Amino acid sequence: MALLGELQRDARQSNADLAARIGLSPAPTWRRVRRLEELGIITGYRAEIDRRKIGLGVLAFVRVDAERDNADATRVLEEAIRGLPEVISCHYISGAGTFELQVLVTDLDAYSRWTMETLFRLPNVKDLHTSFSLGEIKASAALPLGHLGTSR
């Protein structure tokens, strides 16, 4: 969908510029954007920030092992994880482990402190397995849209 692709590329562009890029007039472009927001397809607008330039030099991938046979305890853990600003992504995973987290901190000492003072103190956490990013090959918040076709 051209409209979504353009918005992912630059959500700050004016409606007139957006309309010109997708080949529509401004009024129907504006209506389509509003409709996508109402449907929950567009969930918000935010700035992309270079984490390193603001001092978040360590990206950790953390597999959290928890008891899977206790649904109530798992829900409590999910809520606790949602409240941690250092966790930028959390997925309930198959295979070994229960959750896979992406965690951003300033340095390795900060990560060590955070795991001991925060993560290990969460309810239902049995164990952690951490891998650190040694170099970023690709990081994008833009979703692949090829399956949507070329309609506006």
From TrEMBL:
One biological process term in Gene Ontology: response to amino acid
Annotated InterPro entries: AsnC-type_HTH_dom, Dimeric_a/b-barrel, Tscrpt_reg_AsnC-like, Tscrpt_reg_AsnC/Lrp_C, Tscrpt_reg_HTH_AsnC-type_CS, WH-like_DNA-bd_sf, WH_DNA-bd_sf
Domain HTH asnC-type as annotated: residue spans: 1-57
Keyword Ribonucleoprotein recorded: no
A Pfam family: HTH_24
Record keywords, A-Z: DNA-binding, Transcription, Transcription regulation
GO cellular component: cytosol
Single GO MF annotation: sequence-specific DNA binding
SMART domains registered for this protein in UniProt: HTH_ASNC (SM00344)
The protein, known as: Lrp/AsnC family transcriptional regulator
